[in-house]
Amino acid sequence: MAGHDTLFILEQHKIFKAFEDSLVENSLKTQNIIDCRDDILYLWHSSEACLLTLNIKTLEIDENVNYQRLVGTESITFTVSTVLVNPISTWVAISGPHGLCAMRLPRRSGSQALFQGGRDTIFCRSRILDERHFMSECEIYRIKWHPNSCTDSHVLVLSSDNSLKLYDVCDEDQPLKQVWRIGPRSGRMPLLAALGDSTVDVDIGLDNRAVLLCGNGNVRILDLSATEKSRLTIDGPLRMYPSADDNYGLESCSVLMLNEHFICVATCGGTLYHCILLPNGEFENSSKKTFQEPSKWGDRSSNRNLCNNYSHIETSQHPVDLTHSLYVIEAIELDLGLTLDDNDPSHTCPIHLKADEGTKNRYFCYHETGVHIITVPIIDQLQKFFSSSDENLADILPSLNSTSTIEYIICTKTSKMENINPPAGICVTYSTHALISILADGRLVVKPLDVSGPGEMLFNDSLDAIKADSSLNRSNLTMSLNEMHKVPFNNQIHQLLKHELSQPLLKMSSNTEPDAQECFELLSHATHVFREEYFSKIERARKELERRGKTLRLLKNLQLQEIEEWQCNRATISSETERLNEKCKTAQHIQKDLNERCKKVLRALRKKQSTPSHAEKEMTDQLEEYNKKMPKLMSEFSKIKQKIDIQKTQMHNWDASRKKEEIFLGKHLTEIIKNTLGQQTGQIKNLIEKVNFMKQEVGLD
């Protein structure tokens, strides 16, 4: 079954009807209570306090597959705002402002890979982490599964008391493994939060570094792999270039680390800052704060009052060098709702960022007024740049002209509406390459995602000069073809169709009904966007297709002409080849005759010479030497023959005597006789070889 058919079946599935019933009394705040991992969709049902799960991949086989309920062994009484499954789908973290629960996922089995073979309701082992602490002393801002955990069971929690806690959900006795103090104590937090000095978000990279974002826009780096437990060093606030008076926003709300060098910072006003994190060539002095960090917690009783265990904040007496800086390369303004009039006030709300695990250059923004898709093509260029050798840096230098693409896919508010319909969660299913969004009123929106992504460069301007006339020669066509092959054609068309404004899917609150004037303004706005941003770019893409078609047709005609020329020259080339082969054979025959004549001439010249040649003299000397040695060798040969006759006579006598009388020889005598006979045999063999050699040299054979 095709992917789009699966998405259509998914939209009609009854799991979303059950999920919609649990959202009736939910507060109108942006949440993320759905997640998808390994094609399993997880949805939090607040009324029944359980997880609803559905295997999306099984919809290709069975459209009527049932969803399953996962019920924890410990009841969850706090309001849930986040559902996050770990990378290997063994644990799911369920959190809210005042609680954190870790639920162990059961094993999947059966032909459809369902939990415990497909049972409707499954009880799963779960546990509440630091319940009293989060219920009464602080709030949870953000939870993240640690990407470098060996067991994928470590979860990081950022709380309102300016602390970052590390829990191991597999540890039954002591789940809290580490606490990093990243700011002042919670006693002064109301004032600090108002001033923007508190940490509001955190993200972790694969290099074991945590990026901390404060409300005033300050960004700091925390190395989670530090082995020193007594003192904690935070790198920051980092310098941001180019400098700005407002520090790039005084209402920062979210940070996302797409890779070890690229960071995205979001503000409540809808501005996204794309930054590159680079080490400083020469460290710059700055006020780098050092905090006292507690060691690992001992018994469980010490965890009950965490604020009392935090150490005091200490400022370094000497300025410490900053090791990194942030370079802002792009600022993006998001449309927080549809603005129908220029005089309408702008909407502000927290922006939540979510990375696309399927591709490195795309992430999602969801907020009270809808969902955006952001594509950043420069990330691929940066990845190639940082991983290349020093010799190729000039060829792959990233181009800052490649701007990011913004796609406003879901809008839940206009500038004249007071009610909002924020997303209850978004997730990506990678088997069908689609973004699943569920709104606060329970409506489902499934958006297919582009797998390839936009290209990095446009068609070269030299193609605009190509005309379908007789003046177009082979070199111009070849150059045009090379230009076309630099970037895949689908990426070029995708880039041409890229628009700065998009017309989102309107999903207003069901409690609000727009009047006729507002409907007309919405229609006028959509018409304007389609006319300016869609139709004109489609026309441009059509012209580009025609231009490429002309070039390819001309190139085809040129190639056909070349084929005809080659066919005409084929007979001439064949006859020329035969003629050259005949000449080659004649030349070889003449060369052979000349070699024979040269040999005859040389032999005749040698015969006419009165004095022997050097080789003949050497041969004569050797023969004379052999003649001198022959008498001695002949006498030795005769002696050897006599010895052989004597040995034969002795052997005959020995055989005769042995037949008459069997004589027993000991082992020692036997070995001596064998050795003696072997030596004599070898000597005889050597003498025979010498005699034969002498005969051959003398010519007696």
Q: Would you write up a description of this structure?
A:
- Among the domains are: 1-128 and 421-452, no CATH class; 618-698, no CATH class.
- Helices cover 33% and strands 27% of the residues.
- It contains 11 helices and 34 strands.
- A hairpin with a 4-residue loop joins strand 21 (252-257) and strand 22 (262-267).
- It starts with a helix and ends with a helix.
Summarize this structure briefly.
The chain has 701 residues and is an alpha+beta fold.
List strands and helices in order, with pairings:
Blueprint: H1 3-11, H2 15-21, E1 34-37, E2 40-45, E3 50-55, E4 68-72, E5 82-85, E6 91-96, E7 99-104, E8 108-109, E9 114-115, E10 121-124, E11 126-128, H3 131-136, E12 140-145, E13 154-159, E14 163-168, E15 176-181, H4 189-195, E16 199-204, E17 209-214, E18 219-223, E19 231-235, E20 239-241, E21 252-257, E22 262-267, E23 271-286, E24 289-292, H5 306-309, E25 313-315, E26 320-333, E27 352-355, E28 362-367, E29 370-375, H6 378-387, E30 405-411, E31 423-429, E32 434-439, E33 444-448, H7 474-484, H8 489-496, E34 505-506, H9 516-608, H10 614-660, H11 667-698
Helix pairs in contact: 7-9, 10-11
